[in-house]
Amino acid sequence: MATTPDLSEALKRHFGFDSFKGNQEAIIRNLLDCGDTFVIMPTGGGKSMCYQLPALMMEGTAIIISPLIALMKNQVDAMRHFSENDSIAHFLNSSLTKAAAEAVRHDVAAGITKMLYVAPESLTKEENIEFLKTVTISFYAVDEAHCISEWGHDFRPEYRRIRPIINEIGSRPVIALTATATPKVQHDIQKNLGMADSAVFKSSFNRPNLYYEVRQKSPSTEREIIRFIKQRPGRSGIIYCLSRKRVEELAALLKVNEIKALPYHAGMDPAARSDNQDAFLLEKVDVIVATIAFGMGIDKPDVRFVIHYDIPKSLEGYYQETGRAGRDGGEGHCLAFYSRKDLQKMEKFMQGKPVTEQEIGRQLLAETAAYAESAVCRRRSLLHYFGEDFGKEECGNCDNCNITKIKVEAKEDLEAALEAIASLKEKFKAEHIIDVLIGRASNDVRAYGHQELEIFGCLQGTDPKHLATVLRQALLDGYLERGIESYGVLRITAKGKKFLQKPVSFKIVEDAEYSDDIPDEDAVMKSGASCAADPELFAILNSLRKRVAQQLNLPPYIIFQDPSLEAMATTYPVTIDELAGIPGVGSGKAKRYGDEFVKLIRTYVDENEIERPEDLRVRTVANKSKLKISIIQSIDRKIDLNQIAFSNGLEFDQLLDEIEAIVNSGTRINLSYYIDSLIDEEDQDDIFDYFRHSKSDSLNDAFNELCSDYTEQEVRLVRIKFLSDLGN
Questions:
Q1: Which fold has domain 210-401?
Q2: What burial letters (b/e) apply to 1-13, b meaning 16+ CB within 10 Å?
Q3: Are strands 61-65 and 137-142 parallel, antiparallel or unpaired?
Q4: Engineered SS bond to 37: which of 175, 277, 322, 454, CB 3.0-4.6 Å?
């Protein structure tokens, strides 16, 4: 459609742009014609313009409902830059004093304010409802509309009350906008806002300039992040973490490694949080480490990377957060670290919530896990999740497209799956269907009597993960679809029915292998995911370690573990202080065993004229030791380990992780008071003797050798005692 002079002139006059982006013009025209409008437009597509320009052109004040105070402030500030009058836009929320709120109402009543941003909580206040009844309203804009849906990644119950309040204040056109909406969320939004007949404008979710990558989370993840950032000097980036504590720790770690970084989370003082946000926008710092509270509406076009230290709770959250990279069309690298253990923790956090909320949460986590573990094109998976067909098998711009993949024939498996879905009347989700196929009589299967079906157990012995991949690929290829009302329920499409009549070749790529636990650091290094160690130096260090161990009559891993040798062979520490900064070493071990090692490395560096990559040396944060000091002091006072874990907000296994790290860094601790109360002396000797003669400190090897006579915690505790007594 050609742009008419009036609309084009208004765009140029108010915002200085010569042309509209994508669907903007059609959206604005529909709103100017007083039509309800539903906009699904990815981050960076120009959603704000869709209500800002009409607000300036229409009579009255536009009421813009927005979920975050930071987002409102950012948008109001941006609008004031485009106008000579600061009163053109205001926000009304809990951050205002009574006098400031009264001044806002005065400007709105006078007809000066064209845009009034309100939080949904503020909109529900009786005094605001009564005030807005007296105002000429041009339209209502519901920003971040996915907050309406329980299936959206930022569900806000207050959003469910928006339609009744609009009806009470006075009905005017509504424009709902979101950057992320699956077909299910879209349906929820339209239903809840009474917009079933609205015009829907859906832009493509494809961001071709973004590179998507998922890596296994490991003990070396922090080093990987530091290396990643240092390879991109001066580039802007955002790192997302799920907890405030992790945000603070990671920001501190980046700073001591000479990366300009600041934290951002809801627990900070509002002024400090605002200052940190401004520092990032003004490029005084390169990296912001944040919880998901950061980034909504932040218009920084040149964010070059988004890192997820923790995998998000939903693919919608992941997509929106990655969408903050490369908004100018330039490079954007989206790197996520994934472990099943993190998802299991998130599932635990859901316990105690309403059953429906738990079910939705589990389904969203399952979608996230499927995306992370799938070996198919990441872009294709993401677009399919949002109801968009990519049209190609590979995008060529994600980690999965950059590796050679082996396809396996799965025609018979798909045929059996489709027959099972048909037998189950298309009323069940993937997990139930897989249980029926492999003959697993789960509680649900028995409740419905499905163990009596002829199809039950027809694929007995097949790996459930393989069948999950089959079903996922069948969805991508259009043989199956998910129901919208009963999300997750699988239904056979016309293409699937045609396949049942005449099966054709159906090949899949098996999912990537992710261990249930975070792997040992040496496993990560050997996989090539971490760093390229100098193989010659590693071999020399390994020989030295054996010699020192023989002299002291100790297993070699007591001196330094393999990951520590790998790190030495990567960063070439030539002083005791530098050696102390190597993961798993610490000052205690560095002083006890380090002299010969740094002397050897120094000689190797000189003889081979090696330029040491000091910028890749990861320095540890002294302040991070607060937790470790607390643990050591508590153990010195012989406090029960369960109590220590509870008082520090840790699970018991997490506490053992911390204690192992303390011991591995060369600090001697005495857990005898706790171990003696738990394990007989004879059993302690048995486990202790195993580690004394073992060539490996692997817990799995220990379990196998000890014939599972002991629990995991018992073996771990005695192993800690062994490492502390003999190694420190």
A1: Rossmann fold (3.40.50)
A2: eeeeeebbebbee
A3: parallel
A4: 175
Work out the pLDDT band at 529, boundaries 50, 70, 90. Answer: very low
First and final C-alpha spacing in the chain: 76
- Quick check: do 5-202 and 531-620 share a fold? no
Q: Which two tokens stand for residue 208?
A: 């071709």
Other residues' Cβ atoms within 10 Å of the Cβ of residue 392: 11
Helix (H), strand (E) at residue 287: strand 287-290
The ranges assigned to domains in the chain are 5-202, 210-401, 407-509, 531-620, 624-727
Confidence (pLDDT) at 483: 77
Q: Which band of pLDDT confidence, cut at 50, 70 and 90, is reported for residue 4?
A: very low
According to CATH, the topology of domain 531-620 is DNA polymerase; domain 1 (1.10.150)
Which CATH code fits 624-727? 1.10.10.1390
Coil, strand or helix at 4? coil
* Secondary structure of 108-172 as H, E, C letters: HHCCCCCEEEECHHHHCCHHHHHHHCCCCEEEEEECCHHHHCCCCCCCCHHHHHHHHHHHHHCCC
Instruction: Name the nearest CA neighbour of 229 among 704, 618, 680, 713.
Output: 618
Compute the Cα dihedral for 655, 658, 664, 665 and give only its sign: negative
d(CA 503, CA 19) in angstroms, rounded, equals 50
Q: How far is CA 203 from CA 23, 37, 52, 383, 386, in A?
A: 7, 14, 19, 11, 11
Give the DSSP per-residue string, 416-431. HHHHHHHHTTT--BHH
pLDDT at 614 over 60: no
pTM > 0.90: no
pLDDT mean across residues, the chain: 84
Q: What does residue 37 show for φ and ψ, rounded to 5 degrees?
A: -135, 130
Q: Nearest Cα to 224, choosing from 345, 312, 338? A: 338
